[in-house]
Specification:
The strands form three sheets. A four-stranded antiparallel sheet has the order 5-4-11-8, with no helix packed on it. Strands 6-7-10-9 form a four-stranded antiparallel sheet, with no helix packed on it. Helices cover about 10% and strands about 35% of the residues. It is mainly beta. It is elongated and about 70 Å long.
Length: about 180
């Protein structure tokens, strides 16, 4: 024998105009639904209606996660850096330039808004290699990172010598 428990959840509802003019304080965790806009606010027990933030809609959340104008990851690429550089898959990467052994420039399809973005790099298949954001001069020059591209290098850890690698992954995060 199975027992099914049922519960009814009641949500306060009214028009946006009535919510604003009455300006109630919702109890902590209490939902308020605007019948004419479909928007929801959730109370905290002390903040009046007009000061509460609207909860994001599914459409707004989906746009944040997948929309090209506010992509969480602004660009990424999975590429083979041996022989002729080959992009396996990417987002917002127009091409990858082979600058020589273990030296690559990742070119963006759409420029970053500034150069304050973060670069996440990784490689697989060789624990003796390191991948890093390149600089013109490893000691004193800034990284070779612009709004339209970033330069990365792979080297052998023990010797510091460059080496082409087959499994390089680059991800760019920024505003």
């Amino acid at each position: 024998m199975s027992i099914i428990n049922e519960a009814t959840v009641k949500v306060r509802r009214d028009t946006a105009g009535n919510w604003t003019s009455n300006n109630p304080t919702l109890n902590q965790g209490e939902w308020g639904y605007e019948t004419d806009t479909g928007k929801i606010k959730i109370g905290d027990g002390s903040t009046v209606w007009t000061s509460l933030e609207y909860q994001p809609t599914k459409t707004e959340v989906d746009a944040k996660l997948t929309g090209s104008t506010d992509q969480l990851c602004k660009a990424w690429s999975n590429f083979d850096g041996t022989g002729t550089v080959a992009i396996r898959d990417d987002y917002n990467v127009s091409s990858i330039t082979d600058n020589g052994t273990g030296d690559y420039t990742v070119n963006f399809t759409n420029e970053m808004s500034d150069t304050d973005y973060s670069v996440l790099l990784s490689i697989t298949g060789n624990s003796n290699l390191m991948v890093y954001v390149s600089s013109a001069n490893a000691i004193s020059a800034p990284t070779l990172k612009t709004t339209s591209q970033v330069r990365v290098k792979t080297i052998i850890i023990s010797t510091g010598n460059p080496l082409d690698h087959a499994n390089i992954y680059v991800a760019i995060f920024g505003s």
